[in-house]
Structure formats: structure tokens, C-alpha cells
Amino acid sequence: MAMKRNGKSPVSSESDEKVMFFKDVSLGPHATQLRFRLIHFWEARNPIKKTLIGLELLLIDELGTVIQGFIPPGRIKKYLPDMKQGSVYQLNNFYGSKNKPMYRVADHIATVSFTWNSEMSVLHEVPISFDEDRFRFHSYEDFEANCDLKGDLYDVVGHMKLVNGQTLIERPILDEVEIAASRRIMVHVQSHDGPVMKLYLWDHAATDFCKKFNSYENTPTVLLVTTVNTKRLGGTLALTSMSSTRLFMDYDVQPTKDYFTWLASNPEIANQVSAEVVTKREALTIAEIFSYMTQESAKDAFFECTATIDDVVHGSAWYYIGCSECHAKATKGATSLICTNTRCEKVNTTGVAQYRAKISVYDNSEQAFFVLLGDAGRELTGRHASELVTNYFEANEHKGADHEVPVPEALISIIGQTHKFCVKVTDHNFSGNTRAITVTKILSLDTPPPTEVSVESNIAATSEETVKTGNEVCGTSNGRGDPADGESKRISADAETSTAKRPRC
């Protein structure tokens, strides 16, 4: 059926006086006629038994009013062969069911339910205009206010910042076979100048995104996603796709065109690094990390950063004496070492040398000082700090316990190497006390971007429930304390002045 340029198609009827508008639909049986455009339809399935509950529809009438429709499973075969998204129909006889209170996709109090005597037919060449679509947009603040309420499913439009952890500076590589197997795509999306939100696309939504994204000659920027569910996952607001979700990009529909125009006139927003984007590890340059640290809304966060090691800083401690149990810093007591971690049960402990080496690094954007902690140092050198310290004193038995151990060759040999670092910024960085950044882990340059496994596992466990029925996504993130975390907060402030001591082993 031919569409007008304004996105509307003409329809008419020989019996206009019998037509009921959606605004007049009430609860109960109706022996009257409806005329509407079929915006979208999808299956509803039982999340446990996977049985088909029915076919849900999203309909819009000539006044632009949207209402939800429902076809019971036993009647789907009667109507499905003639159903086509975007076509205009006439429906005689229906029942006005009460709209469900949870996961609604329309504001109307009623749902148009197809009954035993319902008859639907396609309308052609009639002079009434129908809008092609209608969206219900929410901002970040709206999603926050309605998070976990299991109410209406609203739409979001914004510009993409990351796609499966990949920036849009270089076109992200999306493998359709891999996406189909993993059943998910995670997109970081920012609506205007609001905080960046994590958007999880599952099953058909992930597949649709991949195909649409790859079909564009130029990397698409703007994304519109309909009927998303809001959950707080790992303490962070997250949006998840549902079975009713549809996707649009750049120039697909008028709202994406309007947003694309707005984004082009606000390039500073497109290039902005928001503090809210980094609640887990994200790939940023050194300059972007420094930019993040200066923002008032910045909070403790983990990043990935690929950089080249320029030097190992001499004249400062490259290790500290840590508790053998929790690896927190240990201090001298009257007769033994005392763990400074109040949560550690080993008050009197045996000291073990742990890495705390300061290195100079750079990338194409900036230079920085990174501080290697614990396993991060071992992953770079292949040697435990305690082993290196022990070897030094065995070779230099005349040195006293308070002698400062020089930087070992194992550390010096890493100069010139390029690595992907997992780094953490803390309140010390935000306060301006130091720009030294703590490294918690060394990642292989071939390691794919992090996928927030702990969070996604919880979502995946109920993704069938999400995609098929619109039931909520349940998930929690079990945080795990880093034994060196307390130490890492002190490292950046005193790394320049601390002096290594011989451990009491």
C-alpha cells in the first residue's frame, strides 16, 4: 500500500457513522467498528512453560490515539495471514478488556480483545489519514523515577557512546553469527545531555540491531528503542529490551531525524565523556580519564586503557609490606606486624611483599603515572614481588632490614611494552591530590571488551521471561571486595614518599 510522504495513508468507509474512536472504547463488549493502523505485533509466551499466551498488537486510529490489542492463541491462525505491520484495518465486534497494570505499552485503560465474532479486514483507498507511529519518550530522570516499578514500558532516543564496549570512533565490528549465539548486545546510550545509560538488547532485538547497524554505509549514531524495561542492576540504572521492542536508527523515523539534527548542532555533547558512563570497565584514553576525573559528578570507577610504558619511576617504593591474609598494608607493632585492615581477622600478621610500583605511560592523547598493585605487577613481570625482594636480600646479606631495595631488572624490562591496563580512579584523584592512577589488572591486547558477566548472567537467566512475556528482568550484582582496595586508596597519595622495608618473613 502506497504511503504519503508525511507518513500517513488515506482510508475511508461507507459507514463512518458506525466507527468508534479509541478514545471512546470502554470496558465490556462492543458491537461496533474500529479503524486503525497496525503499528506492531508480537508473541506473548509463558516464561516457564514457553507456551503461547496470545498475540499482542499496538494500534493507532485516525485521531492518533494508541491502544493495545490482543488475539487469543486459538484465533491467531484466523487473522495472522492478513496481518502486516503498517497496514490499515477495520475491525467489527470486539471486547474492551482492562489493560494490564504491568508492562503496558499504551496509556489507554482498555485493550481491544478479539472475540468469537470479531471480523477484521484490510482497508484500501479511503480518505482518512493515519499516523504511522506514536512514541512515548522518557528521559533519564523519568526512568530513574520509575525504575523497578514494573509499570509502563516507555521509549528512549539518544546517541550511542559504546556498542559492546567498542567506541564509535572506529566502526564497531558486529558478527551476526556471534550475536545470534550470545543473544545480546549492550549499548551505552546518552539522551541529549543527560547521563549515559546502559541498554541491554536481547534475542530478536540484538539480532535486529546487528543487521540494521551493519546495513548502514556510514556508522549510525542515533538510536531509538521502544518499550524498554528499567531495572537497577549492580546499583546502576539499566534499560532492557522486551518482546515488544523495536529499533530505529539515524534517518529511519522522524524522531531519529530530529535527534540527528539536534546532535549535529551540539557536537560538544556528542564528544562528551559523561561521569555516568563508567560504572564498570570502559575503554578510554588517558586524556578521557583525566577529563572524567575533573567532573563534579565523577565517582569511583574502573576503566580500560591501552598505553605504552615509558619508564619505571626510581627513588620511590616499588613494593609495600602487606598482610599475608588480606594483602592490606601492614605496620610495625611492638613485637610483630599489624594488619591495618580493621575487617581482617589477622591482627598480628606475617609480612609479604606486594607490588606498588609507579610507572610512566603514554598513549596518543596524553602521558600519565600508573601505580601497579599486587597481581598487576606480577602479570607484567611474571614474578611475585616477594620473590624479587627475597632474592635481593639473599644476594645482599649484609644489607639491613631497613635497606631500600632498588627497582629490580624484572620491572625495568617492561619499559617499551604496550599493554591494556584495567585502572581505577578514586576520591584521591577527584580531590586533586594526585593524578597517579591505580592499575588493578593487566589485560591481553587481544582480550575482547568486558561484558559485565556478573550482571549479564543475572539478566540472561531471565531473558526468556523478558523477551517473551514482558515480565521483569531480575538481577543483582554481588560485589567482591578487593583486598588491596584500602591500600590502593592510600597508594596514590604516598607513592612518592614511601620507603621499602625488608619484610619479616
From TrEMBL:
Basic and acidic residues bias (residue ranges): 482-493
Residue ranges of the region described as Disordered: 465-505
Polar residues bias (residue ranges): 495-505
InterPro entries hit by this protein: NA-bd_OB-fold, Rep_factor-A_C
Domain Replication factor A C-terminal: 302-446
Domain of life: Eukaryota
Identification of the protein by name: Replication factor A C-terminal domain-containing protein
Organism this protein belongs to: Brassica napus (Rape)
